[in-house]
Amino acid sequence: MPLPGGAARRVSGLLPVFPWDRLEPYKATAAEHPDGIVDLSVGTPVDPVPELVQNALTAAADSPGYPTVWGTPALRDALVGWSERRLGASGLTHRHVLPLVGSKELVASLPTQLGLGPGDRVAYPRLAYPTYEVGARLARAEHTVYDDPWELDPAGLKLLWLNSPSNPTGRVLTVAELRRTVGWAREHGVLLVSDECYLELGWEAEPVSVLHPDVCDGVYDGLVAVHSLSKRSNLAGYRAAFLAGDPAVLGELLEIRKHSGLMVPAPVQAATAAALADTAHVEQQRARYAARRSALRGALEACGFRIEHSEASLYLWATRDEPCWETVADLAEHGVLVAPGEFYGAAGARFVRIALTATDERISAAVQRLKA
Ligand SMILES: Cc1ncc(COP(=O)(O)O)c(C=O)c1O
Predict the structure, then answer these.
(1) What distance in angstroms lies between residue 103's CA and the mean position of ligand 1's atoms?
(2) Can you tell me which residues the record assigns to a coiled coil (predicted)?
């Protein structure tokens, strides 16, 4: 149907079909279970927002004026401080950080904000968070997937996404792999953007940032890391995330984002600063996920699943060596909803992604159902 004014659906027409709609019939089946659905299909936090973060939010509730896109000096201090402490980066200034309204908006709009377009290429992992492709499509740039980034053809390549720990596989890139990728990107003048939003959720591997000196030698040219508080601090509902890295890239984005009004609300800025100053709640949340992960993993393996990678992140990447929709359908019959691996690329067609983001009660219900 044409839009008012005769405009065609020129932008939404660029985008793939929203995949989650295809899961709806399975959700309906799972919801018929007498003890209710266990929804492990999406990675949305279910545990409380830490009290100290709620307190910081409410203390800043009286914020009548416009916030700034770059954030308050207190927020920038917090972003720099956390990046230095947690990522091991050194020598960062306020020009090395930039707040985001959650990281998804950046992933979807970065190619457009960088002015990429037809003839430019954006690359991301073969199995990946679908929004990297969406961002390339919205800019009308080309997109390409890789197994090893240094095998890519650099012609026309302007933006290279890394994602470690990976959604959906939970794979963690080693320092050697990160170093080699940084060297390759620098050699070919490609901007390297590393999505590290699961960095605090390493289980059998210690995720390392692209900003760590062992990876980048303390030189941030052409390097940007993406961080989010959604998973680390149960703040998906607040939309709290940020970039750290090359001041030249961040300065350009700041100009564009100022004109676009991409401001983090002032109370969320205050809450973000409070959350980054605290590690106790991160440890507490990690312990919850570790227990859920171990219970689910044991139950899945006992009933014939093989788990690949999954050494970090909020997911188990599992297969029964059958088409993913068969696994989705069978688990839905047991009242458990999981995501088909195909959502993350054709290479995932025989895997499902199982999220750890359900309450302890729902995880034990899933474990009981898998045993049955
Ligand atoms: C790899 C990856 N990047 C970015 C995001 C977006 O997170 P947020 O917008 O909540 O910061 C997600 C969310 O699931 C993700 O899995």
Answers:
(1) 6
(2) none
